[in-house]
């Protein structure tokens, strides 16, 4: 039986009138952030109390709506673990980093991360409706002194105007949907004035932390900026309440395609049965599971980490076993700024020049005969090949396959292998444009 979609309210909020409870401003201004507040809803463990009394802890804040989803008597409740700190946050671990994705290094202007050729990540605020304990951006998020920085924003817009290869802007932060409505609208208006920006995306946990923010008025406003896509962030089926289902329905009806990004978290959702229930419940509310992330190597999140193999096992248990729409891509966001790398079970067992051997989700092993005569389309007459957009310095393996380059080599490769001082050149080496790693140039 699928888990029911229900609405919850902790007993201490029983007397709050509906018009207040359903008002996102009330939810924001009544967030809980001290041991004393939280103890009114849950019995705290020693470890939680200790963490909450630590002055320099990553910011704590929970909306009354979200804390109501927690079973107050279960210290291992999966919603609780995401939002209530424990003393484990103070534990350091091997490979721990402050900015594990090297976002700051990829920022041409403050708050704008240009990692991939055709899209950028724009960090528009440091505020969220509540704070995930495993936050990847805990180094910048939560600072109450900074909501929206106009000077940074103007520099970001200027960069986007002069960078025509950017066709996709992803708004994140912090959470763009906690911005004052007028500021959010201005931001979207300014982005839409840039002709080469084709799509706008928002990454937001507001529909989960504070679904009452997703008013019809907000949806009508967002719909003026189409094509606009939105990813929510749900990690466990218990987070999908009646209110979340209704908020997603309003957004879908406003024409906003919805996706979900989850993080694989030890003790929260590191189980194929929980994940299957989660992705099926998401598709019931018309949200397409997009990514399942391996937990980043960020300070304070060590106790949430699972082996990468756990994620592969989960995908193995989803693909074929449930609707293809319900299967997310499992992603390791490579430390050091390597970017998102998909990791998945192996289905291709072997190959020869005429046959591949594959297996299906049940372990059935079969073969696929390759065509004996493959007549490829003709790039010389193909308009799309003629007009392909350049990806300066970032073509990577695609560049090798495409034929423009023969090899990729590490920066000092030539010096290292030139032991006798003789230049060994390929006959036609000039014809190849080798792509170095690091500086983007060799030779
Ligand atoms: C995740 C991310 C994106 C978007 O990646 P998609 O795979 O297109 O969803 C863009 N820029 C940065 C820096 C990111 O981290």
What does this structure look like?
- Helices cover 27% and strands 15% of the residues.
- It contains 16 helices and 14 strands.
- It has 443 residues and is an alpha/beta fold.
- Residues 430-443 have low confidence and may be disordered.
- It folds into 3 domains: 1-343, TIM Barrel; 346-374, no CATH class; 378-443, no CATH class.
- The protein has helices at residues 18-21, 24-29, 35-39, 46-52, 64-67, 78-83, 150-161, 181-192, 206-209, 216-223, 242-253, 272-284, 308-318, 383-386, 396-402, 413-416, and strands at 112-116, 119-123, 168-172, 199-203, 228-232, 258-263, 288-293, 329-334, 339-342, 348-351, 355-359, 365-369, 408-409, 435-436.
- Strand 2 (119-123), helix 7 and strand 3 (168-172) form a beta-alpha-beta unit.
- The longest helix has 13 residues, at 272-284.
- Strands 1-2-3-4-5-6-7-8-9 form a 9-stranded mixed β-sheet.
- The structure holds pyridoxal-5'-phosphate.
- Pyridoxal-5'-phosphate binds at residues 113, 115-116, 119, 121, 170, 340.
- Pyridoxal-5'-phosphate (PLP) binds next to strand 1 and strand 2.
